[in-house]
Protein 1
Amino acid sequence: MKKRLLATTLAALLAATSLAACGAKTDKTDTQTTGATSAAETTKAAAGTSASTGGKVTLNLSWWGNQTRNDVTKKAVDLYMSQNPDVDIKVEFTDWSGYWDKLSAMAAGGNLPDIVQMDYSYLNQYQKSGQLADLSEFISTGTIDTTKISESIIESGSIDGKCYAISLGSNAPMMLYDKAIVEKAGVTIPDQLTMDQLYDISKTIYEKTGTKALYDGGINMMQIMARANGSHLFDELTTGKEDSMKIYFNTMEKFAKADFSISADLLAEKNPDVVETKPIIDSSTWNDFLLSNQYISVSKTAGRDLGITMFPTITDSKSQPIYLKPSMFFSVAESSKNKEAAAKFLDWFVNSTEANDILLAERGIPVNSAVADEIKPKADEISQHVFDYVAKVSEVATPIDAPDPSGKGEVEALGKTVVEAVRYGDATADDAVGQFVPEAKKILEEAGK
Amino acid sequence: MKNNQTPPKRKETLAQVLNRPKVAGYVFILPFIIGFLAFLAIPMILSLGFSFTRYNILKTPVFIGLENYRTMFTGDPKFWKVFGVTMYYVLFSVPLRLIMALAVAMLLVKSTKLSGFYRAVYYLPSIIGSSVAVAILWKRMFASDGVVNALMKVVGLPGDIAWLGRTDTAIWTLIILAIWQFGSSMLIFLSGLKQIPVSLYEAATVDGANGIQRFFKITLPMLTPTIFFNLINQLINGFMAFTQSYIITQGKPRDTTLFYTVYMYQNSFTYNKLGYGCAMAWFMVFVVGVLTLILFKTQKLWVHYEAEG
Amino acid sequence: MMTGYKERRTAITLIYHVFTFFFACVMIYPLVWMVMSSFKNTNEIFRTAASLLPETFSPTNYLVGWKGFAGYSFAIFFKNSFVIAGLSTIGAVISSAVIGYGFARMDFKFKSFWFACMLLAMMLPFQVIMIPQYIIFNKMGWVGSYLPIIVPQFFGQGFFIFLNVQFIKGIPYDLDEAARMDGCTVYSIFYRIILPLIKPSLVTSAIFSFMWRWDDFLSALIYLSDPLKYPVSYALKMFSDPTAGSDWGAMFAMATLSLVPIFLIFLTMQKYLVEGIASTGIKG
């Protein structure tokens, strides 16, 4: 009785605040307080032919980023507006973590911005809840030109065969090394190491120079391991398979026990999750792992030229694990009243040389191959390294894993916890596998509900 | 509200009605009631409601009864871990911060030419709040090559401790941060001290009481309402502490600095389990509420209100 | 223990100053480090933790930081912060004094209930009511403006209400009684007797309110969309991007600048703090 009363009350309240109807499809809320309402109505009537009606289309564009990205993106937007006087783009930018809080509040309120910057790890969950517009029709009509964009890039933003996000640039996971230290130790780093080679080289370097090594424990490494083992991380975890995780945690334990590895407490203090405090910067370690778009910041902070090699693989790997990752996407909100205009802007942002002249690969190497070739000579020397590396990877890369399932964030956090237990010597590799795999499976099951 | 009154025996003017405490009380707290009902009540009830649902913000909530609470108490070892971490933090940071604040307030209540300067300097650490700047600042202070270790070396102690990386020391960097930022409690103590009538001290001095006797006989009892306020407030603040853990340590190492609110936040937004997050929030409200209630009940025993004689 | 009124010997005064001064230096060191860091390059901040002085004093961080993002400079952000923090503070201080008086001096039905509601509001983390609150403000058409940030401040803030209650309870009832004999209503007692006597708590509220509103970025994050409306606290977050790289030097420079207004407010207000009953001469 009580329970029913509670449920009824809750339902009533939900209805009162329209929470139950917050989904994008039933959205009827007007666009905020701004004068956007009238513009939106005009375009709704005109449906894509807004230019001829003389009314202005207002688009809200939202992204996360730092000072550089904010500056160049706004500049590009201004250029677009000057070329398209009938379009008014309102920009909105914030920091990474705040961005997702805000986006979820906006989604709950039914007023997502027309164009949102999207990340690979959030794409699935926003698409599954019907927040994102299907861009396939704009691609097929040619509003978004994809002729110079590789098929795999479009696929990376697609779910169930429909495209929901256009990638703005490509990244690749990489391993960094300190050239001077490596030289001093008299070793050479090939294009791609195996884990066993990394182990031996780290040992040599430590003996010769006293510099320790970093073995990455992030979810990237898990995915690489699974891929090298011929499968995919989340495929294994959803079915509770332990194969790849056994390799992963055994390697983890082997490195954790080695005296050439950076100690667990120093690593926790450094926090490799933040670009500027990565242990390679102050030579606490001779190597580090990151994504290619972080390379510029790391080398600037380190103040020296750092060597690049591919993410290591396992001995006798079943397939090349390295992949190209969309650095970030733009998606169009399902609730947007100006999808056509938004798609046009996306096309310009991705395909026009003048836009990318301003953006200068800040979001990763341009996906349009012609544009990338034109931009490259204009980039500075450090950025050139990134261009070269991504080009090299694209020759050997295998397709990226499907967009992360819901629950990825929690699995990643669980992974960190278990990895730390191994690093601090509180768990063996077997313990870790025994804890991680079933719990991850449970999380993914829960999240799928 | 006027209807609630017993019928007046003789006709009162509106002014007289409004002057009756029962009515005037509502007139005075009316802004609170309006604000509470307009901006807080519904979100609060909703968040309580969400705690009985599976709700990922993007989809419609699904009613699941007490499932979240059951998971919290029996199926989530991390929940108890963060609860313990938070309790530990509160247990040490709150009393130490208050003692520090009171001691410095006593030091600064004395009027000298430098009082204003001292007050400013001691308050300064508190104005930087808990921004990103303080996160970097604190991490650099306690870094292996930071100033804390440098000082340790100077006095001959081992100077290579990874304060933020060791499971037994990391939480203390956050407790020390809390103590360092004692400014707000200090200010409240200062104004509380200034509210104590000079005549009391004069009388005591005439009676021949020395400094220590005056402190225990006059200052401390007269300050109890302020102490009480600071205690309640710091207790709530202690449990609600978020940014320190969120931006300085991210819970590292081994979740020994993962605060309750941070885990709650991660559940609500990073893991998209707002329903579970709400359940966690309400459990915390319950715990803090009970502690507060106990403190309010003990008020009679030790808090001295001038107004009650 | 220094609260006596006897004349003190020079020695004690000296010890007092030496101790207080030395301790003040310890307290202030991290802040000095932060100010110094605002003149360092980002990589210097992370490579040399223990050294205080920058290798060279460079104003670059201030110049780069001040220009802000995408053409919106910190001049705009500072102006916005003053509007938000200023109006909020006025609202919070006045309303909390009025409400505090009601709770402290009046006896009315359901008083404990409302007081409990107030405490409850203080205990519930903002993060969990954020989403429902957003939806309500969105329905009201307030999202995108300062209204959701400023208006609730005009309906009292738990912390300040509670602070005022404690202060008013410390004021002897005799004063109210005397005033009532003279024909004062509860309203004029509040205005003429109580308000002047709780000046320290009003000043404390004002200092805190200004500081908290100045530092608050979460409500700005949720409710504001137009960069033209962003406050400093929110803008400061945008120097850091863990996914691409941050300009910590510029962040330190602007963070240092953002402390100046709060510090000035404190300096101008703090002298009123000491004007308690003690100095106004009313005896209990």
Protein 2
Amino acid sequence: MLAIGWHLVLSAISWHEVLSAMIAISWHMVLFLFLWISPHVLLGVLAVILYRRRLHREFPCFFALVLYEIAVFVPLFALSLLPRAAGGGWGYAYAYYATPMLRIALRFGVIDEVSKDLFRESRFLKVAARRSLQCVTGLLIAVGVLLAMFAPGDNSIKWIAGVSVVNRGAAMVQCGLLLSLLLFSRFLGLSWRRLAFGITLGLGASASVDLAIYALRAEFISQRWTEFLNLLSTGTDLVCVLIWIGYVLAPEHTPASPTVFPDDEVNTWNRELQQLLRQ
Amino acid sequence: MEQGIATVAPAVIAAWTLVAVGLSALAVLVYVAIYGRTSPGDLENAVQAFRSLDIEAFRNLVDSDEEAFLRDHLPPGKFREIKRQRAWAAFIYSWEAGRAATALAKVGQAAQRSPNPGIAASGVQLSESAFRLRLQTIPACLHLLDAVLLPGRQTRSLPPLVDQYERASETLFRIGRFSSAGQELARSESA
């Protein structure tokens, strides 16, 4: 039935139109392959830079996440090349939906690493701020669980909907935690180290887009939506990896110590404080 | 059909709400990325922030004895009006104290990286006090907003905020003294 339908359509349109359609399809495919492969090649570059600069010791979870993404990509790409008859379609789908659990755990590990790095210089904040973050995490998990209960997804394939809902909840918690870290640091006047800031920024961008993508994936399953969401997801991955590489390569900015302030400024400062203390 | 719409609609609304939340989070991240990380400590900003605060005036505004005196000597309507104005003024002081604390924290963190051990130690102390002060301004501001909205209720005193402010300013004063001493020492060594 479908073959007859396609035959009628093809006979009704000119060869020029068919050719244009094929070019359009191949462009879509080329774009998708580029956006899928290039982030993983760049992740390899990032892993080498992290290792050579000994940054894998400071951010071991982040380094493990980078390696994990590369390790997962290789079998997934190989499975995607297999024909459906050889188990390529379902094999790929099962493999794809089996990988997020460890990724979620590693991402939480990375968030823990950047928060430790942010509060590294203050003994007080190590306790107080981390306690606040634990409260934020608890609140976000509660919202995620409530969302999973009251908006469980309307996807016809139940286990895909289930995995999407878990991913959606995890993306929401991660996104909320990373935003809390950024806002908290601005509120307290904490200074970020360049790489920790870059990791937070990249991971935050990824988590916020993931939140939107998984929310849509839990509800919509049409071919057009899937293709669009795949492009969006791979495009975001590329942007995130570029952010990480940019921040790894950029030199660390060291803020000036107060010793370099000119004398008159310090005297003004002393005068102001003496006045304040005398009041 | 109506039943179908009724069951599907909340899930679709939830999905689009999450899309909006995700995009808003992305917008915040782009804003933070463009405007960069926290700027390094600016001594002048810290001085200006401190100059704008009159600690005694603030102490008077939140003094419970003063409040009791006003309550006893003013008609209830007038008292609530005055109390609201006083609480609002104290709220602005607290808000500014919080901003000053952020500036102090930046100066303190910069001082921590000083090669002079005295300045570095004072920097640690200053940033710790500044963080405490900053966090204390949150409940203080909420407490004062409560007093603005419900002026009839009796206000509790706010001693920790004032003490923290004074402790931070004393440490800051020490940093300034260390800084001057360091520069004088450097000048005498070069001479």
Protein 3
Amino acid sequence: MRYSEEYRDPQIAHALADRIARDTTKRWVLMEVCGGQTHTLMRYGIGDLLPDSIELVHGPGCPVCVTPFELIDQAIDIGGRTGVIFASYGDMLRVPGSRADLLNVRACGGDVRVVYSPLDALGIARENPERQVVFFAVGFETTAPANAMAVWQAQREGIANFSLLVSHVLVPPAMRLILSSPANRVQGFIGPGHVCAIMGLGEYRALAEEFHVPIVIGGFEPLDLLEAISMLVAQLEEGRAEVENQYSRSVEGEGNLVAQKVMREVFTVSDRKWRGIGEIRESGLALRKEYSAHDAERLFNLVPLQMEEPRECISALVLQGLKKPGECSAFGKRCTPLNPLGAPMVSTEGACAAWYQYKRHA
Amino acid sequence: MPETTHANGLFLCPAPLNAGERIVIGHGSGGRLSANLLRDLFLPLFSNPVLDRLDDQAVVELGGVRLAFTTDSFVVKPLFFPGGDIGSLAVHGTINDLAMGGAMPAYLSAAFIVEEGFPIETLREIAASMGSAAAAAGVAIVTGDTKVVERGKGDGVFINTTGIGLVPEDINLSANQAQAGDAVILSGTIGDHGMAIMSTRAGLEFETTIVSDSAPLHRLVADILKASRGIRCFRDPTRGGLSAALNEIAGQSRVSIEVEEKRIPIRQQVRAVCELLGLDPLYVANEGKLVAVVAPECAEDVRAAMRRNPLGRNANIIGTVGDDVAGLVTVRTTFGSSRIVDLLPGEQLPRIC
């Protein structure tokens, strides 16, 4: 397949792995921020190619994993109401709330649909003017512009029956939280390639400077990740702490200015709760007042719920890179993809599910 | 979820929504949920030595004759798709379940559950397709049934077919017969049927030329059986894809299976669409492919026999049976590392990013 097979060449992979082994003289702990990167690392068994002195820990960048219980419960609440079509990306359907998931809602007669884009959901709203169409707007800065665009279009066309249940989170505040923790072990980051394609490198330069930590913005193919790891090792060994861009075929310094503009037009930065981690100040997005007619939380009079996570679940520690999934006492026993205790076991991008899928017997 | 109805009086699903208490789509996906439903609900209630083998077909002796017997229901949407339709699929699917037991299919039944308001002309088109699929495969549809459900209580038309066929005396195939050292052979490319269906569904704004592989496999099976005596079992990787077929064989034979990623044939377009949608072709359905587990010394003969038949022209030896961990299926990646290929919990859900 053109434009992707080139980045999966086993020979180049082994050459990069050799270079990493040659360059590494100390132990280094690296974190890949994105769930998509975790998935590729597991899928290709890249950890097996690296020297033992490189430890990879999986970051919080799986949108499915960090969406809090309360929001899933709100989604389930809305999705079960008559007159509502609830549209979502596929893998949100199996994320457990406190008592159920959206697949169960569908089994009980709720109209829950899988879409590939918020604009598809907007199309459903256009075709079903008598029903309320709610799109579950999850994700990081990557999915935010398209969601903003859908709301902006709905407002412009006067499609009043379209709304978003917003659960947008931002990457830099989560990285800041990890770096600020006294227990932090992460010494270098593979930065989120697609997020930076939207947002540019500015926020990451500030983090690298403030915490003296190298950040290499990386892509999602195996060679991207190996090259990013190699660049990180070189920085660490030389004592540098800079932002470098491995994913230059997609990421430019300023990011996508048009996307940023529509995001700013529709969303404002807000405090957000992260599943397993808790509330992080100014770590997410909410709809601006001007667009509140498309805010599902307001439309459906949702009351903020407080939920407790299952005690045994250590997803907070996993998402911050402080523990590996295999170190959890419930892992693979009381917590499996079929009966997940915590969200990282749900999405195939989630650190626990990826670990379960690819490494369980290793 | 709070157990109250809302202040505005809107309906809220009143049933307790714990996973497992109601049927969800995943129970029909051929993954872990399907396997659990079978194990926990049906098997204890129906248990007998024939059923407990859990093969694609039951092989029974009746009046001194060995019969293969199977049934399958078809609920595909859309009803017509590139490379076939619900009618031809209903014929091929049941023929293939018989063929996987080494049987020569002879007779089929056809039962229709039709929704009120369904166009008779469309039903005629589907029945015509069934008729010609059966004729081409050399089987006869000899009995049937039609039921009509109220509008909204069905989805156009559902079809059930049941089939019987004769099992030659010296043929004894079962998914519990794989042994360490055996070769695993796949008859062709994977993922074509599932992706042909998926790329016709609403919501995808691109066009592909992917065509379903729906085809009857009994003649390919007969060719293979003629070429070799070392066949342990066949499976057709339908729901749940190649992963489910391999996991079933590994589980029932209490062996491990390792396949090599680079030896599994996948069409470029299928690979590309899977990638775009965040799906893994190992879990995508096929309707005209089979997996054969064969004694190692027969592997080359079997592959050659498959390749002589147009339905097996892309056949490849994809892996071997081992005795590491009973029930474990792994794939050796192009990078030389190994990963587990487990049954999916339920239906495969597209990833967000």
Protein 4
Amino acid sequence: MRLAIFEIVGFVVLLTIVIGMFAGGRPNAARFFATNDIAPRPADLDHVEEWLSRSRRGRVAGGLVGMVLGALGGAPLGTGGMIGGAGIGLLAGAMLGIATGHPRSQPSTSNAQHAWLVARDERDYLPVHATSTTYAIAGLLLAYGIFAIVTAAGPLGRTSAIFAVGFATLLAVPVGRRFQRLTLELRRPEGDTESIRVDDALRASALRGIHHATIGVLLCGLLLLGYAAVSTQTYFGIAHDGHVLVRAEPLSTSLSASTTPADPHRYDVRWRSPDGARHRVRVTVPNRGYTVGTIWPNHGLVGLAYWLTVIGFLGALVQWGRAARAWRRPQRTPPPAPEVFHSTLGSIS
Amino acid sequence: MILAVDGAAGTPPYEQIRAQIARMVGGGVLAPGARLPTIQQLANDLALAPGTVARAYKELERDGIVVSKRRRGTSVAEAPPKMPTKEIRDELDAAVERFALAIRQLGADHDDALGKARRLLEA
């Protein structure tokens, strides 16, 4: 299997991420308290340490399993599909890991249970423009995918599967929102105002992590759409001014076009299509104006697709890092709740 | 805006939730349009089954106290029925009598109890 430079870079970066997941990013409860300007108390410290380590374990385990499954799933679509699949799996698995890693607090053992009659809303916990950013990227993904299909230079062939997976990453938006909602709806532990501040900061951290993982999945989708677009807006063959004599299917490999010494106008074009079948076409080129080899009908579209692929790839890496380090950022949470009612009530009765 | 459910009380939990929300809306503590927690959030916080909270919300909706919309969740109705002033006063009198009785029966210090009650009311 021959790999292009960007594919080799992709594998190296993914490998670095895997190593980095184990070696670095160890959470630090003291830093979490300092970042969120909360005074650490022994009970809260234990709670935060448990949450941070569970969240990390969930993120790493989910990311690894997702990456392997994604790479296996994407392998039939070529190396680009494999890298994109691994990236989607990594981020989707991390998202799932963060959501399921949030500890469940146990209800109190007394008969009386208390709750604040206030709806917990994700907008109170996420950065200000988080939701609009998510929808903007999803919109860009959808619009670019449709544009790339409409402007493809020829039949989509096997790239239609890559486009389908790219569009499917839009599902990360409702899935991410669902995970965020589940995290918000988890039982709030009983305690005083400071405990609730800690709980709110932890929830906000989880929501932020899921938010960045969601954007990361969408950017993986952009990577895939860009990769598919590059594959469909260029082709290997012989053509002149829109007149195509030979066109290899997108994602074909082992491409060659050679002339015979006896007849320099007669080309022997060979390629292997994505399904593994070998193709050979002999064609006589009428005049010298024909282009033989990789043909780019529209340099602007190919350039756009290429850069969107790069942006998707680098952006997904950045989002992965942000999801992993969400606990280090100061969290946006609702105003602190007043003193908890039942704790004082309990001392009266 | 604390909601309390006592599992040992004779009243079913859904009725306790319904009565408390109705009281808060009727007394004007919960303003028209105020969003209520989702069924799942309230069920988790109160360690109850979601069906219990759903039943309370359904009965409140039937009484015109709250409205439920698919995407926006449950919120207090724009013009909920007001609790009559006499009913509020009667309920307040009954609550104060229960409080005073409990303090006397427990032999608690009156100033201490009143101080705690004041702090709770001001929180």
